Amino acid sequence: MRKFFDSNALWLGMLIGAVGYKLFLPLKPTLPWLIFGMLFFTFCKVNPLDLRLHKWHGVVLAAQLFFSFATYALVMHWTGDPILAQGLLMCFIMPTATAAPIIAGKMGGSIQNLTTFTLLSNFATAIIVPATFPLIYPAADMSFWPAFLLILSRIAPLLLGPFFAAWCLRLIYKWRTKKEYVLPVKIAVVPFYLWVCSIIVLSSVVTETVVNNFQAQLSNIIILLVCSFFVCLLQFGLGKLI
Q: The pTM is what?
């Protein structure tokens, strides 16, 4: 049963959150704490001294930015629909999910590489979004620095907080025991289940938004749903190719 749940956790979490969205919606304020805990336990597995920038980090980030603005320009040229263009732009330009290192570790990938890219991607987005969105969305009433500091104030505590907390834990453990810290096996699965909980809560939030806007924006929702599906396929395909 546990093996089945672990293998199908993503769609099960989304389904549970969507079906029981009224039940889970009040848990929305717990999301920052779920993400903080999820990253803290993940970063406990990583020695900060092992984090390295790799060539593929820059290539993936450059491809992400290129397709973000190329897609926006093409959709605006073909359809003139700013909602569709901005929606697909967001699919590309959003930073790597904080859950990426967890899923990478679960699938036998490199937690160190994904941790490095997650930090790089989020801070790059904090710089790029406020610099470009006033051009794309002229109604935005924020200049670069207020927008930059606002975004940074949201992502920095969630990224750097657990990172430095985990690093302090490693340093204190090494100082007291003279050994490198190793996360106990029984605790190593905790970030995965925190991720599942966050998926359930996030799905409830998304479902509530769709339900409240379903009648007014049904056509936009369907178009964005179909287009974002192919955008995701493109991004995963490019990522694997790179």
A: 0.78
